[in-house]
Amino acid sequence: MRANPERILKLVLQINGWIMATAVFAVFLSHDQMATIHQWLGLGKFPDAKIVDYLARSLSGFYAILGVLYIALARDIHAYASIITLAAWASICFGIGSIIINFQLDFPLWWTWGEGPFIAGYGMVILWLQKRINTSAGETLGKNEDNKEAEEG
User: Fold this and answer.
1) What angle do CA 19, 25, 27 make, to 5 degrees?
2) Is the dihedral of CA 27, 33, 35, 39 positive or negative?
3) pLDDT at position 141, please?
């Protein structure tokens, strides 16, 4: 039995969406809680500046919103195909950009290689699944046209 690329695409979008949506909890962390997590991750002393708290919360909120968007897109992958494709390309670019930024900022290697390649890989998987769906649709169309010709002939 072959895997259904449509079901897999929906599942990948939903799983990633729900994981990203959990970032909403970080929006409500106190400065001290963020500092504790920052140090636990081995990223050094957390800067004591309002802009740092703002950026951390804003990025968490952005991830949460994007996660909800992925969940919504998964509801109709055909109607939202172009948006899903755009999001996949954006993920690839963001993943590559994350690798570059993390090297420039001298982030730990486990962070750099765990974040950027995963994000870019996610985008590539989405594009690959979309290609499989389009190929499957084309094969089905071709078979239907062959059957129609056989019936007429």
Assistant:
1) 120
2) negative
3) 47
